Amino acid sequence: MSDPWVALTAGADPVARGRVLRHAHEAFTSAGTVGRPVRGVVADSWRRSARASVSPDTTAHVDLADGDLGTYRAEHPLAPAMPLFRELMGAYARDGDHLLAVCDARGTLLWVEGDSGSRRRAGLVNFVPGARWAESAMGTNAPGTALTLDRPVQVFAAEHFSRPVQPWTCAAAPVHDPATGRLLGAVDITGGDGLAHPHSLAFVQAVARAAESQLALTAPRPAQGDTLRLSALGRDEALLLVAGRKMRLSRRHSEIVVVLARHPEGLTGDELLCALYEDESVEPVTVRAELARLRRLLGTELLRSRPYRLTAPVDADFTAVERRLGSGAVTAALSAYTGPLLPASQAPAVARLRRRLADGLRASLVARRDPDLLTDWARAPWGEDDLVVWRALAGVRPRQPGVQAQVDALEAEQGG
């Protein structure tokens, strides 16, 4: 096959191909073997699905109910692109008995539109708004696998890991924030065997690129005094968007901007010294030198002194997590949490905020007792040794392979 990302070459027999794939799927789910007829991208996805303990008979879990879903969709960065998605794909979906679907970066479906009969049939497998279709939750499927690989992918019939989904064929492409490159979600076209064609993959990829172009054109252009956008979760060097210019901050400048973002009223030099350094012998001149370098980078109009403060409001990724936790939107908070805040930082104020954020999110996940959300945290790099979450996961999924073994190993290691 010339293109490994396309499920069927033009002219191939979908019935014969589907039959071969069903046999291969049965062989994998029963014996763990995967043979040559299966595309490499699908074989790798099946293996990831098995490692994530996805059942081949699973159906999707609805994470967001109507109230939470409406609020979350309205605030999602892909909401401004929905008119374009409908314009480019809506008629195609309705006339072809297909579905247009858009999901967030965690694989939660936000919109599912198109042919009414197809929507009813898709509802039987919970391919509905608010349902989670991440690969780690549902196994191989186009939107979930496209998010995992961060590239367009097509999934045909029995290539789906979940048997109830195997009557469907889908193609999906990721959509990114044009300013930061951050993964926002994916756009998907789902239907029958007729979508198993190279054109459907090219189509959905073109739609994703068009959406990114529109987001770039319609995004508000920051001017002097407008909101700064700060990304500091899961990275040691923060990214700051200033007046349309993206800059990577040094580790110390990242700490300073995070601390000042938490204190819009400003801080004195001594207060910043205590916030940034554990060593009491550090001289105030050290902080002044760092602030002088940061002022040259940002400009004197954005960083003022007496007290030291940022003159523009800061829209930070960690404050978005806090807001969502505060409103009880745990799923949305987890979707915004891309890792610990400046994980390598030892600045006292940053370390306290990092712990408070992680502890609050962990406590909410444990209280929610949602097995998929707990699994997401436990399987993430920052959750691999989180005994509290692994114990909670064992409580709601006691038979999930590997969970109790991980609890036992962590208890032995941590003396718990």
Automatic annotation (TrEMBL):
Keywords: DNA-binding
Domain of life: Bacteria
Domain OmpR/PhoB-type residue range list: 244-310
GO-annotated molecular function: DNA binding
Biological processes, Gene Ontology terms: phosphorelay signal transduction system; regulation of DNA-templated transcription
Protease among keywords: no
Native species: Streptomyces tsukubensis
Protein name from the UniProt record: Transcriptional regulator
